[in-house]
Design brief:
39% of the residues lie in helices and 21% in strands. The protein has helices at residues 2-13, 18-25, 29-37, 57-66, 72-79, 88-111, 163-177, 205-214, 230-242, 252-265, 279-286, 366-384, 395-400, and strands at 118-133, 136-147, 152-158, 183-186, 193-195, 202-203, 217-220, 271-272, 277-278, 302-307, 313-316, 319-322, 331-336, 340-345, 348-354, 362-363. Strands 3-2-1-4-7 form a five-stranded mixed beta sheet, with helices on both faces. A four-stranded antiparallel beta sheet has the order 10-13-14-15, with no helix packed on it. A three-stranded mixed beta sheet has the order 11-12-16, with no helix packed on it. A hairpin with a 2-residue loop joins strand 14 and strand 15.
């Protein structure tokens, strides 16, 4: 497993030739070719046919993924209801072969941080209230991404903690960090995980799609496993005590700008003893190992559809946005970003608004307002009385066609 990971890192990340990789790792060129041809790490080969452990290999792997140190006797107890009738000896022999890989993965996750391989991700409940209009405020949340190797971090601030915010936040953090690590380590948060826990977690499709676009994989931690993301939790604690105190924010953009300036001028310049230098110095060594942020950037907008009302307003995420009166009653597609709402009809954009987070807000374009007033005035005139039409002299048609009177 380690050889496979190192061969792929040298080939995909550092761009070394196969012959150079073989020389560096002391293996044959054929071995390098074989490992590069594998899309996934080589897995444990089952014991010879006939072993009573074979049918339960996947169940054993799932238990080790949850706890790599679980005893053989405990595993046997859990296998009995599944039909396992083998002895403890052959089970221990099987565990002796497969357990080291799971132990190494857990140890690596907690203590070994290679450059560019891990980005720990977590939500930060800042408690900071930012104005959202009409006298309302909302709490800001921060999606925090920390590179444990260098302790460099980035935060993308949002006003909610949805799956859409995870997508936008990851892209924002990647841009601020200047690259993408090989893997993002997530908590078992509902904005990321659709079902399951730990190694058996299934991510939301939108998160999976974004990670594919970023060419990164996901690692989902088991619940109540704080040591596995200690670096990002230390980053959040540091920001809470060193960034937030005595600050006020006029908007979400103001919060984002103040943090980004503080991070560059304070957080990245601090000296960390375990690193042997500043965060910026350590990051400079890690930066070449980060993959480039895709260009163009992945689309992270939320896609919705609604029907415009008779008053030519479309309700999107609890806020009413105006469209031209001609589109009243039509199906409208909405593309929502953290800052902008774009409204389209049959593929043509008909309106664009700054996104509002004020509860039950009404966002009206001045041009739409003028057109609405004209349309309402016309309807009022028609409803008040019939239009005056001049009398028509029909005898002129008789004279034209020489019809006797």
């Amino acid at each position: 497993m380690e050889d496979w990971a190192e061969v792929h890192r040298l080939f995909d990340r550092e761009g070394l030739a196969k012959a150079a990789i073989a020389r560096r790792l002391g293996m044959s060129r054929n071995t390098v070719d074989r490992l590069l041809a594998l899309a996934e790490p080589p897995r444990y080969a089952r014991a010879p046919a006939g072993s009573r452990v074979d049918p339960f290999a996947s169940a054993i792997a799932a238990m080790l993924a949850e706890d790599a140190t679980v005893r053989a006797t405990v595993i046997r107890e859990h296998l009995r209801p599944l039909g396992y009738a083998g002895g403890i000896t052959i089970l221990k022999e099987h565990l002796a072969k497969v357990r080291p890989g799971f132990l190494a993965a857990r140890t690596y996750q907690r203590t070994e941080y290679l450059p560019g391989e891990i980005g720990q991700v977590d939500w930060w409940h800042t408690g900071a209230q930012v104005p959202v209009g009409h006298g309302h405020t909302r709490e800001a949340f921060g999606l925090v991404t920390t590179l444990p190797f260098s302790a460099a971090h980035a935060i993308t601030f949002t006003l909610s903690r949805t799956t859409a915010d995870v997508r936008t936040g990851l892209v924002g953090c990647a841009l601020r960090l200047g690259g993408v690590p090989e893997a993002f380590v997530f908590d078992n948060d509902t904005s990321v995980v659709a079902s399951g826990t730990g190694a058996r977690a299934r991510l939301h499709d939108d998160v999976t799609g974004l990670l594919g676009a970023l060419h990164a994989r996901a690692v989902v931690l088991r619940p109540a496993d704080p040591e596995a993301k200690g670096q990002v939790e230390r980053t959040i604690g540091y920001a809470e005590t060193s960034f937030l105190p005595l600050r006020r924010f006029t908007s979400l953009d103001d919060l984002q700008g103040q943090h980004d300036t503080w991070a560059a001028e304070v957080a990245w310049r601090r000296h960390i003893r375990r690193l042997g230098g500043t965060v910026a110095e350590r990051y400079a060594a890690e930066r070449p190992y980060l993959a480039a942020v895709p260009d163009p950037l992945p689309d992270t907008d939320v896609r919705l559809e609604a029907r415009a009302g008779r008053d030519a307003f479309v309700r999107v995420l609890g806020v009413d946005y105006s469209v031209p009166p001609a589109f009243a009653g039509r199906r409208i597609a909405a593309s929502v970003s953290p800052t902008t709402v774009r409204l389209s009809c049959e593929g043509t954009e008909v309106a664009r608004h700054a996104r509002s987070f004020a509860p039950a807000d009404v966002v009206l374009d001045p041009g739409h307002a003028h057109a609405l007033r004209l349309a309402r005035d016309a309807r009022d005139r028609l409803a008040a009385r019939e239009p005056d039409l001049p009398a028509v002299d029909l005898t002129r048609y008789d004279r034209l066609f020489e019809v006797p009177a």
